[in-house]
Every structure is written in structure tokens, then in C-alpha cells.
Specification:
Order of helices and strands of chain B: EHHEEEEEEHHH
Strand content of chain B: 25-35%
Helix content of chain A: 25-40%
Largest sheet of chain A: 7 strands, mixed
Radius of gyration of chain A: 20 Å
Number of helices of chain B: 5
Shape of chain B: globular
Distance between the termini of chain A: 14 Å
Strand order of the largest sheet of chain B: 1-7-6-5-4-3-2
Order of helices and strands of chain A: EEEHEEEHHEEEHHEHEHEHEHHEHEHEHE
Helix content of chain B: 25-40%
Number of strands of chain A: 17
Oligomer: heterodimer
Number of helices of chain A: 13
Radius of gyration of chain B: 17 Å
Chain lengths: 393, 183
């Protein structure tokens, strides 16, 4: 089959690879009808996530048709089922899964010992997302093997289009969880760093959950414009604006009740010296992240507020504003999304017409065009917000 | 040579005990073993993997067997490799399943056989029996050992540094992996 393979820093190629096979009783094979490039794929593309191997198939946002089922999953999925596959692989049986913490499933990461060394405890397997998260082939391919197919995949019985459904695999639930972790109450003002795809869904979800006002912070006007027109957010372009001052002005000195970091490890800083400091340290691997958005989210948040981290981090950061966090009674909440927890309720939001996730799609490409899609997305060319790949068109 | 480790499994002590008590199944998650077979008198015959396709064999007896609490075993007098093991099952606090505490001991009197056994465990016996318990937990909780393209044999620390690419194995590679699992 054809598959999008990571071939080194800022290099992907669509290659011929063997077709996936059923390896375990609870596996299924899915023929991928739609898949997408995620902002977190850019962290892999840019070489900031350790434990990638040349030849790894990328992609953790995908859906399609079940074409083969192992005997252990056959009671729940059948050949011909149309499914959306969550990016986190979860067993459904361990204590973490029982608690709804699917992204820290205790059984699905065969490289648990590696994750344990890096993080203290292992995390779940993730499709196409380095060997630290299991070394699973991803879904930017014609076919994908889906372990624990009786637990994760969401079977679709309505006639919604792929484009309406695809983002249930990751970014809609991820944005939603980011907003849910804010414990939004009537009157709350929520600030969101990063108006990329996940940020857009965090903004939309904050409104769904009852936020009074949502402030989007980014440096690309086209992204801020989308947040304004699609969700009704107010916007701050941080280039040329002091974000902390602007947020104080908007909130009459209180600060946002909750701050969502939808940026993660490759943040850009408007002040050249600070950007240069973190860039140099990151390049030299003295720190693994450029955490400007997180620092600002902490120092901007109102006393006693919540900082919700859904942007991806892989390791260590410098100059963490622990004094601001501790002395002002802030709460940090975070996590890779527990997608399985959100797929069904968010599908209901889509079916009820309360949100149409297709608004973020700007590019529709064939699988063979994936390398160009990565470049366009990385450099935010051509108004790029979200790239959807269709392997069979 | 000694190793001990523990893990928590989301199942009752009775269920976890029952899974371990089937000694024939030990080799499915303890990768240093080729097979364990039991006889009606409560004794068992163990075959472990030696270097270069060789085997190390011994007979063992159960020395302690308290349902849902503890199983202990040791090799019989005259075994080529004197060894013993025990596993304890304790209810985890707050209804969180069962704590499994495993201890294995192999005596190495010296000589070629000892060095063969030492190689079985590499430099970190605790790491290996941690892998064993991880796979045991997977079998009890999910019925299978999690396998990926990068780690087709499942959790195995010694394979972490030379992973297969995260793309599907060819038929030849899959056969090779199966061979390695038996090697």
C-alpha cells in the first residue's frame, strides 16, 4: 500500500510499504477514506519529538471502512462498518480506562519502559506518533491496523460526510477537553493561545460550554479572522501588542478566568531576544520546548484561575513562572485528550447542528500530495488551516 | 541473581491468582521460558531459553499455594540451575484491583551453565521481570499482549533500542519476529 512515511527532519515521502495485517485477536484493519495532518504532526516533522525512526508511517487522525476484523473484536465491529478512529489506543479494561483516562491507558504501549524513562510513568499507544508512544504505524496511508478495535472506533450510522466526522478522531475532542478543563461558569472569560485547528475547536467549545467571552491570541490574521467570524471570538494579534496588558484591558483588570494553551512546544515569541534564547536552548537540546505561550497563559490568568494545557510538550522547559502559579492560587490541568470519552457526545453536537467542524478545512489533497501538504501547513502558506488527505481519490 | 518487582492489575485477587496458577501459561508472558508443563503430583518441568538456541531444563515443586494470596515454587534438589520464585496477590487499597508482587532467584554456582543463565537475564533481571509482569497484566486485563509495528513482540526492554520502523512487517519479517520470540 501507499503510506506517508517520516524520512528525517522536515522530510516525508509517500512510499510503498507492506499492507497491515491482523496481529492480535482484537485488531481490525481499516481502509482509510479520510485522514488529516495535525499540528502535532509538525512537531514530528520538525524533529522535536524524540524516538522517531526513518520509515515510520505518520498520521493519527483518520476514519474509514472496516475491511478485516480479528475474532476478539468481532462482537463489536464488522466488515463494512464506517468508523472514526480515536488517536489514542486504549484497552478499555485497565484502571485508567475505567476512570475515563484513555490517553494514559496502561496496556497499549508496548514501549512502556521507554515512556516510563522519559515521563516517570508510561502513556498509552498513539497511532503514528513516535516510538515513545508505542511505535504504531499511522493512518496517513491507504490502510491502517487498529488494535482494540472493539474499544476505540466510533461506528457511524448516520449519513454525515467524512469531513463532518473526521475531526472526532482528535482535534475536536482535544479542543473540547481543553475548554472542559476550564470548568466554565456563567460570565467566564476564556483566553486561548493558538488559533490553529485545535485552538479553533477550543474556542468553539468554550462557547458551547457557556463562556461569556472568548479571546483568541495568535500572530496570523487569517487564523484570528476565522476565530472571529466562525465562533465570535475577540482577537489579539500578539505581534505589536502586549498580550498581558491587552487581556487586562479586556477583563477590566481581572484577567481571564481560564487560559488555554493550544500551542505547545514550538511557540513563537514576539520579543526577539526571548524567542532567540529559547530557540538556541531548544536547538542545543538544553530545553526541549519553546514555552512562551504557556508562560504567558500563566502570568495572564486571573488569581485562582485555571490554566488548561492541550498544546503538546515532550520534555523540559526553562524559566517556568512557578512563582506566579503558586502565589496566585492557579490550577493547571492538562493531558493528551481522552478521545474515547468525548466522541459520542460530540457526535451528538454535530448531528444536532450545534457545530459544523468542516469550517476549519482549507486544503483537500490526495495522499500522494502529503509532502506538499506538510510544507504548506508548516509555513502557514495559502491561508492553510487544516489539510485533509483522501487516499482513494 | 535476584529480581523483584510489582504491578497492579484491575481484577480480583482470585482471578489473578487463577491466571498465574496455570503454570503452562507462564511461558506466554515470561519470555525467558520456552515452556512449563505440570504433572499430576504438583510438580512441574521448566524449559528456559539458553544462548544460541540451547535450552536449560529443571524440575520444580510448589512450596506454598494459598488461593488468592500466594504461590511459591523452587527447583528440586539436583536441578541443573537452583532457582526459586514466589508471587503474592494483595487487594489494592480503594478497590483498585490486585497488587502482584513477584520475586525470582537463580543461584549461579559458576561454570558454563551459570553463564548461560546469566545471559538469559542480561544485566538487569529486574527489568526483565518487570517486562514479564507488564505482559501478564496485559493478558489478564485484555486477553492479549499489545504489539505494534515497532515492537512486534510486545513489551521487551531489550528491544527498545532497535525498533522496527512503524510500518507493517513484511511476511518474512513477521516470520523472523516469530522465530526470535522462540529463539
Amino acid at each position: 500500500m501507499r503510506a506517508t512515511c517520516w524520512t528525517g527532519t522536515t522530510s516525508v515521502e509517500v512510499q510503498d510499504v507492506p499492507d497491515p495485517k491482523i496481529l492480535n485477536p482484537r485488531d481490525a484493519i481499516v481502509r482509510v477514506s479520510s485522514t488529516a495532518i495535525c499540528g502535532s504532526d509538525l512537531h514530528l516533522y520538525d524533529g522535536y519529538m524524540p524516538t522517531m525512526e526513518k520509515g515510520d508511517i505518520l498520521g493519527h487522525e483518520f476514519m474509514g471502512e472496516v475491511v478485516e476484523v480479528g475474532p476478539g473484536a468481532a462482537s463489536k465491529v464488522s466488515v463494512g462498518d464506517r468508523v472514526v478512529v480515536p488517536f489514542t489506543i486504549a484497552c478499555g479494561a485497565c484502571l485508567s480506562c475505567a476512570r475515563g483516562l484513555y490517553s494514559v491507558c496502561e496496556n497499549t504501549n508496548p514501549n512502556a519502559a521507554m515512556a516510563e524513562k522519559a515521563f516517570g510513568f508510561p502513556t498509552a499507544g498513539i497511532f503514528g506518533y513516535s516510538h515513545l508512544t508505542g511505535g504504531y504505524a499511522g493512518g496517513q496511508a491507504e490502510y491502517a491496523r487498529v488494535p482494540f478495535a472493539d474499544v476505540g472506533p466510533l461506528k457511524i450510522e448516520s449519513d454525515l460526510t467524512d469531513e463532518q466526522l473526521l475531526f472526532l478522531s482528535d482535534i475536536f475532542p482535544t479542543g473540547y477537553m481543553g475548554a472542559e478543563m476550564c470548568d466554565i461558569k456563567p460570565g467566564d472569560i476564556v483566553a486561548v493561545w493558538g488559533a490553529g485547528p485545535v485552538g479553533q475547536f477550543a474556542i468553539a467549545s468554550a462557547f458551547l460550554l457557556g463562556a461569556e467571552r472568548v479571546i483568541a491570541i495568535d500572530r496570523f490574521d487569517y487564523r484570528l479572522e476565522m476565530a472571529r467570524t466562525q465562533s465570535g471570538a475577540e482577537v489579539i494579534n500578539y505581534e505589536g501588542t502586549d498580550v498581558n496588558d491587552a487581556l487586562k484591558e479586556i477583563t477590566a483588570g481581572r484577567g481571564p478566568d481560564a487560559c488555554i494553551d493550544a500551542v505547545g512546544m514550538e511557540a513563537h515569541h514576539g520579543t526577539a531576544a526571548i524567542q532567540a534564547y529559547d530557540r538556541v536552548k531548544q536547538t542545543a537540546r538544553l530545553e526541549t520546548e519553546r514555552p512562551h505561550a504557556l508562560r504567558q497563559a500563566i502570568t495572564s490568568c486571573r488569581n485562582g484561575g485555571v490554566v488548561s494545557i492541550i498544546g503538546v510538550y515532550g520534555g523540559l522547559i526553562d524559566k517556568f513562572p512557578i512563582g506566579s502559579l503558586m502565589n496566585r492560587s492557579l490550577t493547571i490541568r492538562s493531558g493528551q485528550c481522552h478521545v474515547q470519552r468525548y466522541m459520542r457526545p460530540l457526535l451528538e453536537h454535530i448531528e444536532a447542528g450545534r457545530i459544523d467542524p468542516t469550517f476549519i478545512i482549507t486544503h483537500r489533497l490526495g495522499l500522494e500530495e502529503a509532502p506538499g501538504g506538510y510544507e504548506t501547513f508548516k509555513h502557514k502558506e495559502d491561508g492553510c488551516m487544516k489539510v485533509v488527505l483522501k487516499p482513494f481519490t | 541473581m535476584e529480581g523483584r518487582t510489582a504491578i497492579t492489575i484491575n481484577a480480583s485477587p482470585e482471578a489473578v491468582y487463577a491466571a498465574w496458577r496455570e503454570f503452562e501459561r507462564l511461558a506466554s508472558f515470561m519470555y525467558h521460558l520456552k515452556s512449563v508443563s505440570t504433572t499430576s503430583d504438583g510438580r512441574s518441568h521448566w524449559v528456559a531459553r539458553g544462548p544460541a538456541g540451547t535450552s536449560v531444563e529443571w524440575d520444580a515443586e510448589i512450596t506454598d499455594d494459598i488461593p488468592a494470596e500466594r504461590i511459591a515454587w523452587r527447583s528440586l534438589d539436583g536441578a541443573s540451575v537452583d532457582n526459586a520464585g514466589s508471587v503474592q496477590f494483595r487487594p489494592a487499597p480503594g478497590d483498585q484491583g490486585t497488587e502482584v508482587h513477584l520475586a525470582l532467584r537463580y543461584s549461579l554456582p559458576g561454570g558454563a551453565l551459570s553463564s548461560a543463565v546469566a545471559k538469559l537475564f542480561g544485566e538487569e533481571p529486574t527489568q526483565q521481570i518487570s517486562d514479564d509482569l507488564r505482559r501478564f497484566k496485559q493478558i489478564v486485563e485484555t486477553g492479549e499482549i499489545a504489539r505494534s509495528d515497532g515492537s512486534p513482540l510486545g513489551s521487551r526492554t531489550k528491544n527498545l533500542m532497535h525498533q522496527h520502523d512503524a510500518h507493517p512487517l513484511t511476511d518474512d519479517e513477521a516470520a523472523g519476529a516469530a522465530q526470535e520470540a522462540k529463539a
